[in-house]
Specification:
2 domains, oxidoreductase activity, oxidoreductase, FAD/NAD-bd_sf, alpha+beta, 29% helix, FAD-dep_OxRdtase, binds flavin-adenine dinucleotide, elongated, 24% strand, FAD/NAD(P)-binding domain, D-Amino Acid Oxidase, Chain A, domain 2
Length: 390
Amino acid sequence: MREQHFSPPVIVIGAGIVGASTASFLALAGTPVRLLDASTPASGATGAADGAVSVASKRPGPMMTMARAGAALYRELAEEGLFQGLFHRRPTFLVATSDAEAEVLSDHSKALAEVGAPVRWLTRDMVADRLALLSRKTVAVLEVEDEGHAIGYSIVSRLISAAGLKVERNSPVAALEYDGRSGLVSGVRVGDAVIEASAVVVAAGGGAGKLIGLPDVSRPRRGQQLVTERAPALNAGLPGSLLSCSYLLSKKHQGAQVDARGYGVVIDPLDTGQFLIGSTREEGRTIPENDIEAVAHLAASAADMVPALGRLRILRCFAGIRTAICDGLPMVGRMPGVDNLFVAAGFEGDGICLGPLTGRIVADLVRGEEPEVDVSPFDPGRFAGRSIAA
Ligand SMILES: Cc1cc2nc3c(=O)[nH]c(=O)nc-3n(C[C@H](O)[C@H](O)[C@H](O)COP(=O)(O)OP(=O)(O)OC[C@H]3O[C@@H](n4cnc5c(N)ncnc54)[C@H](O)[C@@H]3O)c2cc1C
């Protein structure tokens, strides 16, 4: 480990799950840190997410590998106490309703097994026993263990209070400031003021690209969701979340959607006895609002998968904006040519699962320590030629 001195403090921009995790792990390691947000903690995608901590839903490759480590960290922190009561461990069931979908699942199960995820096909008897609520149209079910669920804003709140941090709200960073001689980042501009920093972490979700001079690499993708009324008996009949094959496909074909609104169904039995049902993947949509067509489609698809859900009332709907990077991978790491500038953004639909792990990794990078996971596939240097600022 390199001896580091952090005066003035490190500045983390963005108090979503990624920035809050980074700032908290820095603070818990004794590094002075300030956490700034343009609005309030978890006011971006983090506050509008479902909360699946899931390897099952990831695309094969580095995201699946990283998710395995991300889910392991949730389990570890739940046992240690930091996430106690917030992380609910349970399996995910991937559901196919046609032979073609079963084939997709078969390929996916091999990729999951390769990263060591515990998977097993449920027999007809097992489905009847454990998932009796499922529609008779079900052709195949793959169970993935070691998964779980966590509400993003609760995790943010826990991290901030555990580290004794005070979020500097309503502090939109307009630009980064650089030292003309060294080329290092020297601070951030908020309104007319410049706040000095020994290092800066840009964890600003959809606002990150502009700050690091890469405004064109990220794109917004809206997700609409709904929550049903409480139905404890029904809820108890679902031992984990259900994920349709179309959801897997909508993630796999990011940017070239299988249908225009990227419909896919996830049914999450919540602790409250309600069901959270999501979601759409709407390319280029920046306004977090719902429309009747999408909500009706999601409700009908959920009832198609679990007919008993068709009897429940919808209590509320909400929407959030995911930030996706054009090549489908987030940016995590040091900015090329600027030793004290780091970025962690572009987690699309995976940031609740990957946020705490990313925060720990970026905190290690800032402190000059070797991170526990190889993040080279997410190196922001892959866009070096496209940089227009700094
Ligand atoms: C509908 C939906 C469902 C989802 N479901 C899941 C799921 O089941 N599992 C999962 O793992 N992930 C899920 N996600 C994805 C997850 O929510 C995101 O990947 C994650 O929250 C991203 O976190 P973040 O901290 O990078 O960004 P954000 O939460 O967007 O936080 C960025 C913060 O930066 C601040 N900011 C922006 N610009 C500036 C600036 N210039 N100065 C200061 N502050 C700034 C914003 O105010 C914001 O608070 C879902 C997302 C949506 C929308």
